[in-house]
């Protein structure tokens, strides 16, 4: 039981919630601990149910998924949030990532890929492919102010932390970073924790977007 990944399903359509709950219930390592019908309910449920991952619809009446994600991420680094939507516009994806989401999935994603995505974000890994992440970042207009702010933020990192941050931005896994920089995986994880704390960020995708704004990718 201790190894089960706890999932909260958030969608204003009851049929979608039931379908996702049934799909995820078939995975031996996943358990749905609760459901919510809108963003406000999701924020409350996170506090009471302590999920590891939230599957969050973007478009909902009242408090939408983006606002709810922002509120949840401000509480701490857990839980990770995966945005679910029928819309795949770059605007929605970028806004979701800016809000602190750990990934972005369309609702017609095959069940096995949804389960895999949940496992990935629960382990601290982004679920967007490097190619998709690069495409989105190239569409984000980083003006002079954003460039200077990003550079200033990254200057707070030590040289070693900066190397790890750039590796994160490239989409490298902890094991790949450890091999490239000749350090243990435990040391890599410690550096990542320090990076998140110093930059006041929650996940790897946000580090990648900051590196892009700073002109380092």
Could you explain the architecture of this structure?
This protein is an alpha/beta fold. The protein folds into two domains: about 5-130, Response regulator (Rossmann fold), CATH 3.40.50.2300; about 145-215, Orthogonal Bundle (Arc Repressor Mutant, subunit A), CATH 1.10.10.10. Helix content is about 55%, strand content about 15%. It is built from eleven helices and five strands; from the N terminus they run βαβαβαβαβααααααα. The protein has helices at about 15-25, 40-50, 65-75, 90-100, 110-120, 130-140, 145-155, 160-170, 175-180, 185-200, 205-215; strands spanning about 5-10, 30-35, 55, 80-85, 105. A five-stranded parallel sheet has the order 2-1-3-4-5, with helices on both faces. β4 (about 80-85), α4 and β5 (about 105) form a beta-alpha-beta unit. α2 packs parallel to α3 and α9 packs across α10. The longest helix is centred in the last third of the chain and has 15 residues, at about 185-200. The model has no long low-confidence stretch (mean pLDDT about 85).
Give the topology, please.
Layout: E1 5-10, H1 14-25, E2 30-36, H2 39-49, E3 53-57, H3 65-73, E4 80-85, H4 90-98, E5 103-106, H5 111-122, H6 130-138, H7 144-154, H8 159-169, H9 174-181, H10 185-199, H11 204-213
Parallel strand pairs: 1-2, 1-3, 3-4, 4-5
Helix pairs in contact: 2-3, 8-10, 8-11, 9-10
Q: Outline of this structure?
A:
With 217 residues, this protein is α/β, with parallel strands linked by helices. Helix content is 54%, strand content 13%. The protein starts with a strand and ends with a helix.
């Amino acid at each position: 039981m201790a190894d089960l990944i706890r999932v909260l399903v958030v969608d204003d359509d009851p049929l979608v919630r039931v379908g996702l709950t049934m799909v995820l219930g078939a995975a031996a390592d996943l358990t749905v601990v609760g459901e919510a019908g809108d963003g406000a309910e999701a924020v409350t449920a996170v506090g009471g149910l302590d999920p590891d991952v939230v599957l969050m619809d973007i478009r909902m009446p009242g408090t939408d998924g983006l606002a709810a994600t922002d509120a949840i991420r401000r509480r701490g680094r857990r839980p990770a949030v995966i945005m679910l939507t029928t819309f795949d516009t770059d605007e929605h994806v970028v806004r979701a990532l800016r809000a602190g989401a750990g990934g972005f999935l369309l609702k017609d994603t095959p069940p096995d890929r949804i389960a895999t995505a949940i496992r990935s974000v629960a382990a601290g890994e982004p679920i967007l492919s490097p190619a998709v992440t690069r495409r989105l970042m190239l569409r984000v207009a980083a003006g002079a102010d954003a460039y200077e702010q990003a550079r200033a933020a990254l200057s707070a990192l030590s040289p070693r932390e900066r190397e790890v941050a750039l590796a994160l931005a490239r989409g490298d896994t902890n094991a790949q970073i450890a091999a490239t920089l000749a350090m243990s995986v435990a040391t890599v994880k410690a550096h990542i924790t320090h990076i998140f704390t110093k930059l006041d960020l929650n996940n790897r995708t946000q580090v990648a977007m900051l590196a892009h704004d700073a002109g380092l990718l």
